Amino acid sequence: MHGMHGEDGTVQGLCELADIPYSSCGLVGSAVGMDKIVMKAVFQSMGLPVLPSIYCYRAQWQQDPDTVIARAEETIGYPMFVKPANLGSSIGIGKATDRERFRHAMEVAASFDRRILIERAVEKPVEINCACMGFEGEVLPSLCEQPAGWDEFLSFEDKYTRGGGGKGMKSLARQVPAPISAEMTARIQNYTADIFRMLECKGVVRVDYILEADTVYVNEINTIPGSFAFYLYEPMGVPFSALVDKLVLYAQRALAQKRESSYAFSSDILNKAISGTKIIKK
Ligand SMILES: Nc1ncnc2c1ncn2[C@@H]1O[C@H](COP(=O)(O)OP(=O)(O)O)[C@@H](O)[C@H]1O
Ligand SMILES: [Mg+2]
Question: Residue 20 domain-assigned?
Answer without folding.
Answer: yes
